[in-house]
Amino acid sequence: MAWHLDGAAQAASRKIAGSAQSTGAGYAAGLLTWLLCASVFVVVKGTEDEIPPFTMSFTRLLLLLLLMLPLVHAHFAEMRALLRTRGLEVLSVGAIGMGLSQALMYLALHTTSATNVGIVSGMAPMITLVLARLVLGEAMTVWQGLGSLIAFGGIIAISVKGSLALLMGLQIGLGEILAFGAASMVAAYTVLMKRSQFPLPPLALLTLLIAGSVLSLFPLFLWEQATGKVMHLTITGIGAIFYAAIIGGGLMYSAYNWCIGILGPARAGTLIYSQIVFVTFFAWLFLGEQLFWYHYLGIALVAIGIVFVVTLGPKPVGESKNGSD
């Protein structure tokens, strides 16, 4: 059955990537990524008293790795070959994008306010635009830059709750530097996934990337255990780990890697802005948080900014081939 699942995933990827609908599928995959990411945020928030943050990250990715291994056993020979030739590279990309970026974000949240972290981490799409230009030579238009700034304005509006005084009081300290590091790692992962072009089927590659993240989080997990921050699980907490592993792990990362492959780093990175829209909605729906005028303003600015980048930026590499060319 595992062979059939992996084969079906590869066949579907080839079919969609070569069709006229590939660009739309890329955007759908990107939005699905950040919708799932937002849902994990709410799930983790709801179980924070049961599971410490690093323990949650390590446990969910370790569980996902154990679930993935039987699915890709037919590709073990290819995976070993890649590890022999480019092992450090593939494990490092996984550690950066799935492990260390989360670790830095958690440390930032324990060092400064969530408002400051939200604003600084919202810079990830803009960093991605710059890195994609410098590393991959992707075209970057004025409209893309303007759209990214507008969407970033939406992030700020929600983060500071529409308060200019709160925005003006933003100070740069260790927490903000850590948040910027986390945002830079997300951007770097987005660009490196496109540049590396690892020669493995999607599920096999995802398994190695997850292995890299597990290795990078293991020391942080041990540190948390040594400081007495242990799990106190209930059925809810166990369900949260499985949800974060399978839905917010395997499915989410598969969707994002697919999105990067279709759209390229610049456009894929811009869709990160949609995460705060989904987080706001889920927090209202499941956690009972109220919506205020600044939420609606921020959501509108994020939507306008994404539309600017999507409609007025350069076309993805494969789009012209799928269209009139």
Shape: globular
Helix/strand class: mainly alpha
Provide the gyration radius in Å. Answer: 19 Å
Oligomeric state of the chains in view: single chain
**Strand percent estimate:** under 5%
pLDDT average, as an integer?
Answer: 80
Uncertain residue segments:
1-20, 317-325
The amount of helix comes to over 70%
Total strands: the figure is 0
Main β-sheet: number of strands, strand sense, barrel status?
none
What is the tally of helical segments? Answer: 15
- How far the N terminus sits from the C terminus, by CA atoms, comes to 39 Å
- Note the run of SSEs as H and E: HHHHHHHHHHHHHHH
Overview of this protein structure:
Mean pLDDT is 80; it is low at 1-20 and 317-325. The protein has helices at residues 2-17, 22-46, 53-68, 76-109, 114-121, 124-136, 142-159, 164-168, 174-196, 202-226, 235-263, 265-270, 274-286, 293-312, 319-322. Helices cover 78% and strands 0% of the residues. It has 325 residues and is an all-alpha fold. The protein starts with a helix and ends with a helix. Helix 2 crosses helix 13 (274-286) and helix 5 (114-121) packs antiparallel against helix 7 (142-159). The protein is globular and about 55 Å long.
